[in-house]
Amino acid sequence: MKLFIKYLVVSIIFLSMLTQGAFAAKKYNTSELINIAGMQRMLSQKIAKAYFFYGQGVRPDKTKKQLMDSIALFDKNYNILLANISDANITDMLVFVEMSKDELSPLAKQAFNKDNGSLMLDYSETLLEASNDIVKRIEATTKTKKNMIVNLAGRQRMLTQRIAKFYIAYQSGFKDVNTIKQLKQSMKEFEDAHVILAKNIQNTSQITTELNKVAKLWNVVSKFYKDVERGGLPVIVLSSTDKIMASMNRVTKLYVELGK
Known about the structure:
It is a single chain. This protein is mostly helical and 260 residues long. It has one domain. It has helices at residues 2-25, 30-55, 60-84, 88-108, 114-141, 145-171, 177-198, 205-226, 234-258. The protein is globular. The chain starts with a helix and ends with a helix.
């Protein structure tokens, strides 16, 4: 039995080494790296959004899972970027991102209160700024229209989560002018970018279908965002926002495929 267990452990370690080797060997092109780095922007906001929704008891089963899954995906993406980027300025920023995430992760596991909520907002903003800088630096290495459109579409994913973050933060007691200002600014940026994406001559029928779905859903849910002071309907806001993000994630990946 001991010999069998020893053999099993050695086999698992060997398979793990093979998997890690395959992971390290995979190389990503610039469009793919922009997509992954752009996803980090989104996750910085999704983590905070899920924390607030969970703290308010909104779909706790779903929002807690979102919170933990988002942190795990952030770590996975970080390792991919670190393994595929050699630019010293970008790797320096990646180190800063890791430090910021290491501050945010333990906080995400603590119970919600006003102080923790305030820290979560601050950390998520810092993480967003650093992650966005990385996207811009990667894009600047080969500034082409195809990479710019991947960046723009990917940013829409982040904005959906950012809007929902400020919406639920307001409902959680952060009823200050800045919360409403950031919410409305993010809404305007989302709407302006959607117009640009809808007019993109590279759009395939599949991309157009997804963008049309986003537009229809946005026309409904944006009314709740604009009525943030009134509040209510958090489950609808959560569900609708995530559906829009899922569509924009598909659109971003389709743009990445077009660039290959």
